[in-house]
Batch of 2 targets.
Target 1
Amino acid sequence: MMPHLGPMVRKEFIQMRRDRLTLGIMVGLPVVQLLLFGYAIQTDVRNLPTVVLDQSRTPESRDIVAAFQNTGNFRIVAHVNDRPALDRAIDRGEAQAGIVIPYDFPRRLARGTTARIQVIVDAADPLASQAAIGAAAGVAEVRNLALLTRAAGRSVVPLEARVRPRYNPGLRSPNYIVPGLVGVILTITMVLITAMAIVRERERGTLEQLIVTPVTKTELMLGKIMPYVGVGLVQMTAVLLLGRFVFAVPLAGDVLLLYAIALVFVVASLSFGLFISTLVRTQQQAMQVAFFFVLPNILLSGFMFPRQAMPLFFQWIGLALPLTHFLKVLRGILLKGVGLEALWPQVAVLLGFAVVMIVASVRRFHKTLD
Amino acid sequence: MIQPSVETRGLTRRFGALTAVQDLTIRIEKGEVFGLLGPNGSGKTTTIRMLCGLLEPSAGSATVAGIDVTVAPEQIRQRIGYMSQKFGLYEDLTVSENLNFYAGIYELKGDARRRRVAAVVSFVGVGNRLRQLAAELSGGWKQRLALGCALLHEPTVLFLDEPTAGVDPAARRSFWRAIHDLAAQGTTVLVTTHYMDEAERCQRLAMMSGGRLIALGTPAEVAAAVGGRTLEDAFIILQERDER
Ligand SMILES: Nc1ncnc2c1ncn2[C@@H]1O[C@H](COP(=O)(O)OP(=O)(O)OP(=O)(O)O)[C@@H](O)[C@H]1O
Ligand SMILES: [Mg+2]
């Protein structure tokens, strides 16, 4: 069965080894992307410049300010004496957040009634303000627990605060970004590699010589996919290891399961690239189509923006992208540690996508020059 | 009755409004060295591509080794060898890797493969260059390698599209010696060329111009049919007629 596949695969491996540029892209891209996304595009906001208006000036109030600072989200840049001064600081952009602790704060705490602190956030930067609000809620809740423990026996519920993020308690963006990045990097490189595969042979004139031989269409297609499956899995390993050791991203679930599903995703991406290769006539066109495909993957898959917030139409487009489903798998396994019982619908979609694309590529490709 | 090795009837290929090959009917016998001659754009490559199953004819039919190329193109693959006009091997593979790749594609295995590759290497004389990348070979060596790859599976019909373009005279002579050796062993060779001395070495020629068959026969017959004393004259007469 498929007697010509072995030579095809061997040939691709030799060519891969000699093609320094592609090899460089395959190794360099994951590293550069990871560092870029990991460091530059930090969606969690640290060190938000903050002014404090502490009207009570008590040990309790200093305690709470310290707690805010300890979250790492707030960096106290100034103490002010009245409310207008605080507003001015925020208006001028000297600070992006303000903390107001009223006169009666310690008294209310002591009495067991709800004690209020006000956190004012410059919401012009939604990302920063969200992070600040999240962190403030966190502070309130931690304080709550502390107070409850101290006040055990008395029936008091002092501070108000909710919102406790599960699975990613620090609300750290690397936890969110790095698993997603595995999918994005695989999509970009896998689709691009095979999108060029057949047109390159066509442009160089090697296809003409190859298709007068008994090699079959299926062998030709699989021969273009198989060598790069290994490349994809190596890339994934590199990103996961970097994510683990540079950004301390957890590896919660079954890694073997992750690799098994990643294999399906890699084949799906490669076969999509191959399909592109059967649609276009030149490598340049292939590159353009591949990038045209990569963009919606980054925007609509849920990699950077939550899909629930998108108009329905874009959510549907997102559903057609393999990356959307693989992201669920990645985050599900890496952050939540869920297993196949939760992820089988995603696996089914990815498998279906791969099969459809391979079949479509084989059917579209003809062993002729027209 | 002896079956012809290649036979075309009314073979025609159009590209949009352009008719690249029009109503071509030829018959090539087994073991013959048959030349396809004609100015640039006269339809030589298009003809060969149709015979190899690389292009579908717009009209007419063709059989190669008794098999209809439009009906069963896959069945002729194992029986034909093809050297494309443009170098079609992998420049980023070495000479030996190219040979072994094609040997694998033609399902040669183990000892049989080693023996066959070694035989071809000595036949086309690339023994000293096995480890060189194809990209680094000069034109003549590339053509020898391409011939070698086309011979690995011992095809009964060999299509050579301008195999000696850009090759020095000495190398051309040895190339043609190889062609005649193959023909002597029973291989049918269909070869295109722009060199008149090479055309003279073919048993029969088809002279094409503007996609049409102008003359068919021995070199002398073809020259006479076009109205020249030599093939060279005939060729120039054709070219001038084309330009008008
Ligand atoms: N794929 C194609 N699409 C459109 N036109 C084509 C195609 N292939 C060939 N042609 C045209 O068909 C005609 C015959 O071309 P062909 O390559 O067969 O000529 P040729 O005799 O091999 O010429 P040369 O001596 O230059 O190799 C030319 O006018 C060429 O431009
Ligand atoms: Mg030609």
Target 2
Amino acid sequence: MAKEKKGVRLEHISKIYQDPKTKKEFYAVKDTTLDIEPGTFVTLLGPSGCGKTTTLRMIAGFESPDEGEIYLGGEPINELTPNKRDTAMVFQSYALLPHYNVFDNVAYGLKIRKLPKSEIKQKVTDILRLVELEGMESRMTNQLSGGQQQRVALARALVLEPGVLLFDEPLSNLDAKLRVSMRTEIRKIQQKVGITAIYVTHDQSEAMSLSDKIIIMSKGKVEQIGTPREVYYRPSSRFVADFIGEANFLDAKVKEARGEKALIEVNGEEMEVNNYIGRKPGEEACLVLRPEAVLLADKGQLPCEVTLSTFMGAYQYYQVKAGEVTVQITDYNPVNKKIYETGEKAFLDFDTDGVYIL
Amino acid sequence: MANNQNARLERRKFFSDPILVSMIVILIVFLALFILYPLLMLLLDSVFTEGKVTLDVFRRVLSMQRFRKAFTNTLVLGFIVGLASTLIGLLFAYVEVYVKVRTKVLEKLFGVVSMLPVVSPPFVLSLSMIMLFGRSGLITRTLLHIYDADVYGLKGIAIVQTLTFFPVCYLMLKGLLKNIDPSLEEATRDMGATRWKVFTSVTLPLLLPGLGNAFLVTFIESVADFANPMMIGGSYDTLATTIYLQVTGSFDSTGAAAMSVVLLSLTVVLFLIQKYYLERKTAATLTGKASRERMLITDKSVTIPLTIFCTLVAAFVTLMYIMVPFGALFTLWGRNYSLSLKWFQYMFKTSGLIAFRDSIVLSLIAAPLTALLSMVIAYLVVKRKFKAKGFIEFVSMLAMAVPGTVLGIGYIRGYANGLFRTGVMQGLYGTGLILIIVFIVRSLPTGTRSGISALRQIDKSIEESAYDMGANSARVFTTVTLPLIKDSFFSGLVTSFVRSITAISAFILLVTPQYLLITCQINEQAEKGNYGVACAYATVLIVITYGMVLIMNGLIRIFGTSRGTGE
Ligand SMILES: Nc1ncnc2c1ncn2[C@@H]1O[C@H](COP(=O)(O)OP(=O)(O)OP(=O)(O)O)[C@@H](O)[C@H]1O
Ligand SMILES: [Mg+2]
């Protein structure tokens, strides 16, 4: 359906804002370089205020970068105004035109492109069928539910067949259940149309379930780019490991490095674990343990003492003390196993081939 | 930091939108030429004599006994009127928001009172004041048999101006009182405070900046008012009337220019205090909406006196308006109260038709231009970023602080001999076009103000989405912005029509015999003592303005934006 999928490339992009109170300038986005392949679904994920919206608005053209160049389908677009860019945005507040009905909202951009009436009608009808809104053409936008408004906003962007589709937290105004069903729908439609999409969110489960690639940002900088699996299993920094899912961090000292492996010392115990980011011997590092990847047992890698043990239904939740650090453990199959009580001594049991240092 | 790429790109994007750029250029030229330039000429006139910078003119003017008297008079008057209007306005607002009265009559009266500032020509109250309390007044002479009653002078102007301006205070303060969270007052009351204590310790402090604001707004209005002091002032001259007489009586337009500079400085300073200090403070102390309904005061010792007072004032104002058509219908005011149409016939036989035609045509041309222009300014100010924005916003608001008389003198000095007396654009002076331009300048600030507050309600992403879908600024403005602020546009249309057709201060100085304006006719007839004819003109004028307001309400109901912009 889309005439041409386009890739997006950001080259050393920075955006400087002035703090309205202190008048001090700061980088909202700093020296960001990204390459987004045509036809992929990419999310920008990060905590509030890290510059996601700013990045998206620079791609759409509402803000101009202070440094760097943005390319769309290989063409530099820095100097183009939003109306001249081959992008279409779905806004968080939907931003439907309240004085138009559904049909006119979707047809707005087509009319500007001066398409013949019959073609406009055909396209609008098709796209409304795609987002399952047929028959609602003549409704005013305030006569629609939140989810339906969301779909109008999506249809209105899709119908323009833009080179890239931009979303700024499009689901954050919906209730939790609808959010889940809408996100599968968005993903389905994007795959059907094959369009390039850039999606801003601070909800990690949304990012995980939607994306081909996740771009994790922090304080205006890109922390890591990777598939959902990569960022979960091989985070490149402590920030990413902490931000995506839960993680326990144990201080470790690197004794030897052997390719992607390293011999480390943790709480006086030596073990060989993964060393994806190439830590060198002698460096202080930390061992990352996901709560679901560790079990309590009578034998294991590291001794510990249980400080909290709670039955949560689906799993048994423990807090244990290993050395100086409190470690959280979620044991999902406690039925036939021993349940450890508060105060008991035990061992952390994990597969050294499955854990890594940062 | 490297900010210049951003600036360069923004500039690039800005200039790739030729309609936007030319619109801004036109606006800047218009504002500079028709607001700044005439005021600048006044300043130049009063400091240049024969090519040299001197303060001679100022010295001469300041040494005039008449001028010094007028200056004090203006301040005294402004102070009294500001204080009285604020107080009465506060009482009305308090009764409306806090007191349980709910009689149909009073509600109607309140409605009438809040409508009046919109539809009333400014000097109507002076006219009826004279007819009620003047030498041949209905009350003074016919009822009380006082034969030497004197309404002229300070007390006359003060009463008339207070009655004219207090509704403005009432509307302003009503909005503020509604925003006070009732739980604040209930909490104090709960701690044992009397009602009076609650009023003085909670309501009043919260309201104080708002009261100051209302006081200054009326003060400025009073200082700038020309028509009422002219008609009912007698020998009590204010700056506005003195300036007028300096031009029309003493033919001393440099002197008038210097006086205008003084008057202008006064209003501008007051305006700046009001706009940049008090308005902000008001907004800071009273933010947000009341969380729930207020328990109305039912205590009879409070409700009865307040209700009676407000009813009396409102009824009195209404009575004064009712006087006007009767003034036109009675055969001879003060002597013969039989009804006749002879004043209307006289009006139409003389210049009546021409005056109505001229006034209506000129106002009808000016109104849509003003409405459109003010919406464009509002759009640019609220929604766009560009260098000259501060200039546009400031100058179009500054026009609010310029008294009509000052503007009139400015146009005489600035355009009678062409731009900078070079003869360029000389053709403009004395034409209908310059009258239209002055109409526009006079109504622009109110329209812009209402446009700005309407636009602030609209989520910026709605326009961004249209822009994102490929619309250029002109298209965004016509297909999205304007439809969303239709109400404000329509009311701007009518307000500027009404303001134009009822305006006098600037026009009495600029109008040439070629054009007759209703307001100038009323003034002329009243000066000659032909109150019957003056009333006939005023009656028709009120009917026209009231009719326009009805049409506006109709338009808003039919095309109004109840379709969901209010979300
Ligand atoms: N117009 C502006 N002027 C000044 N600072 C701004 C402006 N817009 C954004 N900022 C600041 O820039 C930083 C990044 O903002 P941005 O909106 O991109 O964050 P975000 O990642 O989208 O956050 P959220 O998840 O809360 O939406 C924030 O510190 C914000 O306060
Ligand atoms: Mg954001």
